[in-house]
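Example S7 (structure tokens).
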């Protein structure tokens, strides 16, 4: 059982309430979920803090996502809640500030991770905000059992890739068509959000709008 799991929250220091800022009349987090639905998985889940559940629940339902809630600062535990509740074997991890995830790259990465039976997989040198991570559920449960460091628990995967002697890692460079690390696609500041609106409007009628090569081509023309 494979799940796409999106972590998202309402409070953000650099761009307050960014998850609910609207692009084309819909909140950012809904755009993220709509993109992630293009990634094949058995289930799609939004994992949010307890204090965000009421706001996110109708949006998750609109996008066709299940929703679970858990500790605000212990994001790793939120993922473990998803694993236990839905009996997950593998997670494709995504974050709520990335509306331009390369869904084709995500699918390829997960295929490679499954084929190699990796505990952790992630492409390097993608545009910032374009990628996901593919992680085995057993590795996340092991990490949760072994680390109490706040950094590990907030960021979910560092305990895995910082312990290569324990976990099987797959961290290749991105294929050449997606290798543009100088491009920034995440939404973390007002400037990022303003660019995201422009990019979204340029892509929204494109049938390949979730394709990494298409996103890169349009971004380069605009910026």
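Recovered sequence:
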């Amino acid at each position: 059982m494979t799940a796409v799991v999106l972590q998202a929250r309402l409070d953000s220091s650099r761009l307050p309430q960014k998850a609910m800022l609207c692009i084309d009349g819909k909140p950012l987090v809904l755009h993220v979920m709509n993109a992630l639905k293009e990634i094949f998985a058995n289930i799609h889940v939004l994992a949010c803090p307890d204090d965000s559940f009421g706001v996110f629940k109708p949006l998750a339902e609109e996008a066709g996502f299940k929703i679970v809630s858990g500790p605000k600062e212990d994001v790793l535990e939120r993922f473990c809640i998803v694993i236990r509740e839905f009996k997950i074997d593998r997670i494709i991890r995504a974050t709520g500030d990335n509306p331009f995830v390369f869904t084709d790259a995500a699918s390829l990465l997960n295929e490679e991770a499954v084929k190699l039976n990796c505990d952790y997989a992630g492409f390097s040198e993608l545009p910032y905000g374009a990628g996901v991570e593919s992680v085995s559920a057993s590795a996340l449960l092991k990490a949760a059992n072994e680390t109490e460091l706040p950094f590990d628990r907030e960021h979910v995967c560092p305990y895995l890739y910082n312990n290569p002697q324990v976990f099987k890692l797959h961290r290749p460079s991105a294929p050449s068509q997606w290798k543009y690390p100088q491009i920034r696609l995440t939404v973390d500041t007002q400037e990022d959000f303003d660019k995201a609106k422009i990019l979204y409007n340029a892509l929204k009628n494109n049938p390949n709008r979730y394709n990494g090569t298409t996103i890169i081509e349009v971004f380069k023309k605009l910026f």
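Notes on this example. DSSP finds nine helices and nine strands in the chain.
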